[in-house]
Amino acid sequence: MNASFAPLQNDSFLRACLRQATDHTPVWLMRQAGRYLPEYCATRAKAGSFMGLATHVDYATEVT
Length: 64
Known about the structure:
This protein is an all-alpha fold. It is 45% helix and 0% strand. It has a domain at 32-64.
């Protein structure tokens, strides 16, 4: 069975996964994963915000 799909509007993440050239470095965030765990909540509180958590190497490494 050969399915036909509409062309993708933004395929930069998929192209990066295939090691193809992209205009920018795509980033994929899974914001919901583990957000109710006490350890995650404590680390996010130290970071001050989700963006603080995502952009600080030590915090991002800890929650990953």
